[in-house]
Amino acid sequence: MRIHLVGGFLGSGKTTAIINAAKLLMARGQRVGIVTNDQGRYLVDTAFVQLAGLPAVEVSGGCFCCNYDDFTARVDELANTIKPDVIFAESVGSCADLVATVIKPMLELRGTGSQPTSLSVFTDSRLLRLRLSGEELPFNDDVNYIFDQQIAEASLLVINKADLLPPAQREELLAAARAAYPDKQVRLQDSRTEAGVQEWLDLIESSQSALPTRTVDMDYQRYGQGEARLAWVDERFELSVPPASGREVIARILSDLQSRLTASQAAVGHLKVLVEAGPVRHKASLTTLAHADWLATLPDLPGEKVQLLVNARVEMPAEDLSRLVRQAVDSAGVPVTLLHGDQFHPAQPVPTHRIR
Ligand SMILES: Nc1nc2c(ncn2[C@@H]2O[C@H](COP(=O)(O)OP(=O)(O)O)[C@@H](O)[C@H]2O)c(=O)[nH]1
Ligand SMILES: [Mg+2]
User: Fold this and answer.
1) Are residues 331 and 221 in the same domain?
2) Is 353 among the domain residues?
3) Which of 29, 132, 231, 288 has the fewest C-beta atoms lying within 10 Å of its C-beta?
4) Are both 48 and 172 inside the same structural domain?
5) pLDDT value, residue 112
6) Same domain, 199 and 328
């Protein structure tokens, strides 16, 4: 069994790439399992992966490193139930230091248990371009530290969403990244289709060169401060909508929320929503640098009940973020029930193991 770890910042495209890679493998007759991960409990990603027809288990309520035993138990659960040839494990986008806290412990402490085969670190091409040209990212420096440290430990860096840069900038960025990280394999990728992830999949399936084993120095105080700057709000609402107006109501709520976030000048890590109405399920994502079409793909929503699961990770106080989400939901002027909700800042990371 191969275990491919996929890390990298919030919204960089990890889940998208994993789903397409898993579909390719399944078409080749391979069995695939997925482990999702988040600090929260009500996860858009897990639901989205399951909706794609892929077996998923989750490590929720904290990162793999701080829940190492839970992580290995989930891997073993998949191994014993669906008996996959390949497992993809996506670590939460605020997590770093995976070599010391996940890879080395698995290699050194697990005996005969299954072990990791690769780590791919994903980054949004537009954020990496800003970072490498010395321009400011919209986050606090301690959050930027996490972004940098994720990349620092990679031996395979996937510069994702390459399609969002003009061709000339793509090649420039690839050259700049290769110059900045001479020891890494660096690839440009568009993960939106199965064809787009094929070469990456073949690379991690065929070689051990994407498994880093060099621990990076990590300032846990800064790392913790960076995580604590980010707010997590996970809320599920049920809305009663007039017939044939579900799409319009949800579009109004999401664009209202986007305007409120813009007005508050808060840096968005990733705002993901899962919308469910009758048989229709749809995921929409607003990431640090928005793409114009994030609402354009919203489907028609049948019936008079719509469920909206919001997972928001934004640099601002959690209670302010929760208030913005509720104001946006209320702005639609339809009856709404909050089914469940969590709002918090991630706790200081305390890894179960850390092997230098
Ligand atoms: N244009 C473009 N969008 C992408 C690509 N990969 C992912 N996305 C979009 O980026 C958003 C965040 O993706 P997701 O896979 O949820 O990111 P994660 O937080 O790293 O798991 C979603 O709207 C995806 O559709 C890509 O290669 N190109
Ligand atoms: Mg994800």
Assistant:
1) no
2) no
3) 29
4) yes
5) 75
6) no
Q: Looking at the predicted structure, is the pLDDT value of residue 103 above 80?
A: yes
- Please tell me whether residues 50 and 89 are part of one structural domain: yes
Cβ(131) – ligand 1 distance below 6 Å: no
* Test site for ligand 1: of 14, 285, 309, most ligand atoms within 8 A of the Cβ: 285
Which ligand 1 atom is nearest residue 284's CA?
Answer: 23
Q: Establish whether residue 13 lines the binding site of ligand 1, counting it when its CB lies within 6 angstroms of any ligand atom.
A: yes
CATH of the domain at 60: 3.40.50.300
8 Å CB contact between 313 and 270: yes
Q: Structural domain tally of the chain? A: 2
Region 218-243: what's the mean pLDDT? 98
pLDDT tens per residue, range 161-212: 999 999 999 999 999 999 999 999 999 999 999 999 999 999 999 988 899 9
Distances (CA, A) of 350 to 67, 108, 125, 224, 312: 9, 19, 30, 9, 23
- Do the Cβ atoms of 350 and 65 come closer than 8 Å? no
If asked whether residues 97 and 215 sit together in one domain, one would say: yes
At 83, is the secondary structure helix, strand, or coil?
coil
Residue 52 within a domain? yes
Q: Which domain holds residue 7?
A: 2-225
Q: How many other C-beta atoms can be found within 10 angstroms of the C-beta atom of residue 205?
A: 19
Q: What percent of the chain has pLDDT over 90?
A: 94
- Atom 26 of ligand 1, residue of closest alpha carbon: 161
**Model pTM above 0.90:** yes
pLDDT bin (cut points 50, 70, 90) of residue 294 is confident
Domain membership of residue 351 (yes or no) is: no
Task: Indicate the pairing of strand 336-344 with strand 230-240.
Answer: antiparallel
Whether 87 maps to a domain, the answer reads yes
